[in-house]
Amino acid sequence: MVVGPVGCGKSTLAQSLAEVLPAPCCVLDCSATLKTEATPEEQADMRAGNLLSNERANEIFCQSWREALAATRSLVLTGFPRSLEQGRDAHCCCLEPTHLFHLAIPPEVCLERLSGRLTCQSCAAVTNVAVAATHCPRCGGMLSQRPDDAPEIIRKRLELAVGVDGQGGYVAEVVEFYQKQTEVAICIIDRPLSESDLLARVRSWLDL
């Protein structure tokens, strides 16, 4: 499981790690289930930077990771849970990660990264306009900017994730919850790293 504020590199790490293991990757921000099950009102609310209710998040997201686990016992997950309540409910539904990678990247770094973030419409890979402006370097699909990557919405999402001035927020709640689960290894990355260095750090923790 990979957690952290918006723009910290969760999706990129999760997808790279899934290729190395190999294992299915469930990026719940971009999941097909989210796009089909969330109502138009809920999708508009998320584009405005708000979070789904805990009840709806669990209803939609638990279906996604259960489908991904149907054929294998291994899964790389990011984008969920996003509250203490979601973590508890997911744990009750047998979502029991072996490792939690916490990307504790400073909010100002996340904000800078997101100003040029692009997402592939085909494979959901995340890149930056400095790397590729039109086509995905992973699969060749078309790139676009997410509606919720507007500067004012990014600030709102960062505040929800890490609180004001880095105090509070749902990321700290989720990490604290899993710290109390003795079977979960918590791995913290507290400074920005390149994609390759970050993956290398994670692979060393997993002895890959």
Question: How would you characterize the overall build of this protein?
Answer:
With 208 residues, the chain is an alpha/beta fold. The protein has nine helices and eight strands. It has helices at 10-20, 32-37, 40-47, 54-68, 84-92, 107-114, 151-162, 170-179, 195-206; strands spanning 2-3, 25-27, 76-78, 99-103, 117-120, 126-128, 143-144, 185-189. A three-stranded parallel sheet has the order 1-4-8, with helices on both faces. Helix 1 (10-20) packs across helix 9 (195-206). The longest helix has 15 residues, at 54-68. The radius of gyration is 16 Å and the shape is globular. The two termini are 16 Å apart. The model has no long low-confidence stretch (mean pLDDT 85).
Secondary-structure topology with pairs:
Blueprint: E1 2-3, H1 10-20, E2 25-27, H2 32-37, H3 40-47, H4 54-68, E3 76-78, H5 84-92, E4 99-103, H6 107-114, E5 117-120, E6 126-128, E7 143-144, H7 151-162, H8 170-179, E8 185-189, H9 195-206
Parallel strand pairs: 1-4, 2-3, 4-8
Antiparallel strand pairs: 5-6, 5-7
Helix pairs in contact: 1-9, 4-5, 6-7
